[in-house]
Amino acid sequence: MANHLQNESSPYLKQHQHNPVDWYPWGDEALSKAKAENKLLIVSIGYSACHWCHVMERESFENKEVAQVMNRHYISIKVDREERPDIDQVYMTAVQLMTNSGGWPLNCICLPDGRPVYGGTYFRPADWVNVLNQVQALWANEPETAIEYAEKLAQGITESETFRISKIPEKYSEDDLKEIVKPWQQTFDPIDGGYKRAPKFPLPNNWLFFLRYGHLANDADILEHTHFTLQHIAAGGLYDQVGGGFARYAVDGQWHIPHFEKMLYDNAQLISLYAEAYLQKPEPLYKRVVEETLQWVDREMTSAEGAFYSALDADSEGVEGKYYTFQQEEIDNLLGKDADLFISYFSITAAGNWPEEKTNVLKTRLDADKLAEQAGYSKEEWETYLKDIKKKIRHYREQRIRPGLDNKILTSWNAMMLKAYIDAYRTFNKKEYLTVAERNAHFILRKLITEEGTLLHQPQTPFKTITAFLDDYAFVIEAFIALYEVTFNKAWLDQAKSLADYTLAQFYDRQAGAFYYTSDLTEVLITRKFEIMDNVIPSSNSVMAHQLNKLGVIFEDSTYKEIAAQLLANVFPQIRTYGSAYSNWAIRLLEEVYGFHEIAITGPQSNDLRIAIDQKIYSPNKVILGGVEENLPLLRNRVTERSLIYVCKNNTCSLPVDNLKDVENLILKQEA
């Protein structure tokens, strides 16, 4: 018999619908039942691509004896963290406060009103049953002790992300940046790139900061390590050398053995990063990575309506990575005379380059393309050969049982991938990338924006409507502004402005000088949190700071700019303490120190000039406006039959120019 998850749309929740545990989705039914029966809650949180979530399900939640204990004494709620990140934030903070660590699966035991009293991540079956019995005994015999502890913990959760309103500095300086960068730089791994740690996460926003900082500060060492890192990431097994796309992290320190799940948000950010890195330094490897990853998105992660799916599991046939690994004899049999070059290029061995599993995870050396030169290939011939041989291997691999697909469509992640397509289009000028971006943007308009103009977190189903969180608004605003910059269609800007105004009305706390993660109109949990620290995804507040500043510049709106400035000022003291956790804020700081350029292109050739500027001039701190209509303040009284370019900064514009060299000189002069 199916439990109460049978009508859910989340693949993760549906995976648990036939467990003997009497799971409920988060909602009034479960919460009311717990209160009515005075039973403790189990709030168990995970996601579809989570390997250890599947392990705990097999060991505990499919175990009838374990389920009996859970069903007798508890009301059990299963949550998809990607569907309800607001719930995940609250209980993750609770577990981190209790244990100084966190992760998924996340399991919290709570009072009937939802306040946590005990929690952890993965539990072995015997340990889980022991915990359940002990906490139940406490609730039965000493309920006041459990309530007292829950009250203290709830207070800690509320206070976990507070900060003071800070005075906005008259000026930020290069010294401020150096104070952030110097200790951060000490963590660099000079041997394998990235940071001196294992496991290794790609953390694209970190390297985007260093790419921009190295360029703007003319810091050759930072730039060198950034490119060194990007090359190592792309050469390792973290990158799917056959099918494109990146896994979530590498378990070792050499980027070789991945935790094989592929997440949409990682790949969106890495596409944007490699596209921008190519502008700064046109490495062929970066172009290859962007092209192959977008082909993977198109092939495996795109719906018929042009929306993007969420993730691919790490496991297939119950084995992590089985779909992605190869034995040398498979390659020999498949490729014949071409096998030796392929085996050498991708570091394949007869014993397996992943000794623990006696198989091969494909990787390359940084100088692997020299093998092609030695074999007599020109660069163009090698690219063609590599595409053909990878396609052959991929088709062979596709005969295997595929990893599970999480086909949830999440607004924020779709917006991130939309922007990734735009960034790739800006760098490589492939019209098909813009076509995909526009198609996805229209999907958002049709399916993820309500008649009232507000966002949904995911498409509505007959059984569930989830209103959007701050990150949904922030990333859609960012994507729509980016879409305007490559189309000069003001409708996208107007839509971004409307969404920004809604966030100010329903999410912004003027006393705190920050945005709540949830709106004033949504369900109230045990506390209402801000999201300030940048993680593998930039925080929603940092993205809002960027986009409000940009909208303030575009529309000459001082309110937007003041709120963005206050946000940065409030977080600025924390950036110095831990740069890696505030990298998107640090990128915003770069704009303050080195300036933010407004480039206005007018006249009939405005789009051609925009393409040339995007492809030929690496200037990360800018917004581009243009077209043949005077529909924005910066374009007013400037549109003529002749195409002209204005470079502006701090409310002051240059005399118009009509060529790239002059534009580049003006930007360099303003950055100096």
Automatic annotation (TrEMBL):
Protein name: Thioredoxin domain-containing protein
Pfam families assigned to the protein according to its UniProt record, in alphabetical order: Thioredox_DsbH
Gene3D superfamilies according to UniProt: 1.50.10.20, Glutaredoxin (3.40.30.10)
InterPro entries: 6-hairpin_glycosidase_sf (IPR008928), Ssp411 (IPR024705), Ssp411-like_TRX (IPR004879), Thioredoxin-like_sf (IPR036249)
Superkingdom of origin organism: Bacteria
Domain Spermatogenesis-associated protein 20-like TRX: 3-156
